[in-house]
Amino acid sequence: MLAAEQENTEFTTTRKLRVVMAQLDFLVGDIPGNAQRIIEATRQAWEEHEADIVVFPELALTGYPPEDLLLRPSLGVRVSEALEQLKLAALEPAIVVGAPLRKDGLLYNAAVVIDGGEIQGRYLKHCPPNYQVFDEKRYFAEGKEPLVLEIRGVPVGITVCEDLWKEGPVEKTAAAGAQLVLNLNASPYDIDKQARRKALLERKAAENQVSIVYVNLVGGQDELVFDGGSMVYDHSGVLAAEAPQFAEGLFPVDFLYEHHCQPISQPLPPEPSLEKNVYNALVTGVRDYVNKNGFKTVVLGLSGGIDSALTLAVAVDALGKERVHAVMMPFRYTSSASLEDAEAEARTLGVQYDVFSIEPMYDSFMAMLAEPFAGTKTDTTEENLQARLRGVLLMSLSNKFGSLVLTTGNKSEMAVGYSTLYGDMAGGFDVLKDVPKTLVFRLARYRNTLSPAIPERVITRPPSAELAPDQKDEDSLPGYDVLDQILNLYVERDFSAEAIIAEGYAREDVQRVVRLVDINEYKRRQAPIGVRITERGFGKDRRYPITNGWKPGS
To answer: Per-residue confidence at 551, pLDDT binned at 50, 70, 90?
Structure first.
């Protein structure tokens, strides 16, 4: 037989399957809107890619995480109506859609397979997670059975998110005959998360001899950011395709099925730097929080320091310069360098910029307080008053013009309480809330590689709140290189004070930092939410009692 005839024979015995990964951004709670988005994306996947299967993220119908919306009495009705809408849409490809489903009185995090206008199968998530930012056991029961369906002649199994991270669900699915596993995800971003996902997928695919399609949500939801990065691994554990992070899209992958369901490999995107990924996470988080909550503009205090400069750049990149208003609010301790640098930042990025001195307001307050303050020494009360006056100004602009106030505190400051309640903490969204100060510097330099944004002097001069003469942050705190390492060990890794000291840090520094973290929980509880980029941010991740008698130690 001729070689060409051999190739033709193989062609007729090998099945082809085109799977489209629908890496999309859904709005939590908008079940009818999300259903319509699924229909439109499926039709696009058919028209542009001739998809056989379109796979959507976990709980795409409700958005993720829906939290206590899952307890609403009308949830079941709304989900049923949306599923009926999907069935009646006469979609050409099969679709796999995440949705909450009730069975025998229990609610499940489910995946629904719709093909030919009918529901062909329902998979109930086996392993609802209950750690870090996840609280699924509050709502969902545990599924038990695998689901394997023949779709276009290929045995296809379904799993949902955490099922991949635990032993059992993928193994059961492979044992039930699946050659291809479709895994639906709403996996939030944190630094190095994609690397951990890849190591897991490589192992699971190779151990179970199945190809795995990993489809992840993209977009921001309150403090969480989902980075996409959907992937395909072949049955030997080799990465065959990867979608970009922080980008919506429909990403097709072709499979050949004979003895194995083998993806046809695609060129892989370049590995992004840590700074690029974190910056994109911040931009995504700001863009979605502002837009999904219906704000037209944002306003922030521009101090001439690095935190507000970086926040301004993120806001402009997320929303466009015409939607950003920067306000400089100088006082007698504000340096000429800060005034010059703040104006330079605003002019460079092209935002609306105003200067309102707080001096007259401060003098009025101090005149009013002269009698009760008589005989007392100047202390942090007067410093905090300056911050609070700035907060009043920003909130007044917010109320009058409907702008969202962006606060500018970083994670290092939030950790030790280096912030003022009802002052620089007053606002709706803290862009840098989970970004340590040392990473702020790195992000500022990264942003300047894209286009000019932050003056070099802002990056190099010592940080200062400028609430007192010649004030420097490091007058009252360890250097940020030391502070951020201690905070990482204590906040993110749960080291005790003595364990941190054993790592080589000065006892005085450790005891001071640990005490500041502990006593400032009340402040953090009243702080605005912000983008989560680490494995343990101040928010859903870390829930400590404000009133407690726990003593730092071993």
So the answer is: confident
> Does the pLDDT at position 466 exceed 70?
no
Residue 112, judged by CB atoms within 10 A of its CB (0-12, 13-18, 19+), counts as: buried
The neighbour count for residue 291, using CB atoms within 10 Å, is 16
Q: Where are the domains of the chain?
A: 15-264, 276-475
Give residue 93's identity as a one-letter amino acid code: P
Span 72-112, pLDDT tens digits: 999 999 999 999 999 999 999 999 999 999 999 999 999 99
- At the second CATH level, the architecture of 276-475 is 3-Layer(aba) Sandwich (3.40)
Q: How confident is the model at residue 473 (pLDDT cuts 50, 70, 90)?
A: low
Joined together, the tokens standing for residue 349 give 């990025």
306 appears as a binding residue in the annotation: yes
DSSP assignments along 417-471, one per residue = T-S-TTTTT-SSEETTTT--HHHHHHHHHHHHHHS--S-HHHHHSPP---SSTT-
Buried b (16+ CB within 10 A) or exposed e, 148-171: bbebbebbbbbbbbbbbeeeebbe
Q: Which of 125, 172, 204, 433 is catalytic?
A: 125
Superfamily of domain 15-264: Carbon-nitrogen hydrolase (3.60.110.10)
276 annotated active-site: no
Q: Cβ distance 312 to 326 under 8 Å?
A: yes
Tokens 């100088």 appear where? Answer: 330
Question: Which tokens belong to 222?
Answer: 């309150």
Q: Which one of the listed residues 127, 136, 161, 162 is annotated catalytic?
A: 161
The answer on whether 187 is annotated among ligand-binding residues is: yes
- For the question of residue 58 being annotated catalytic, the response is yes
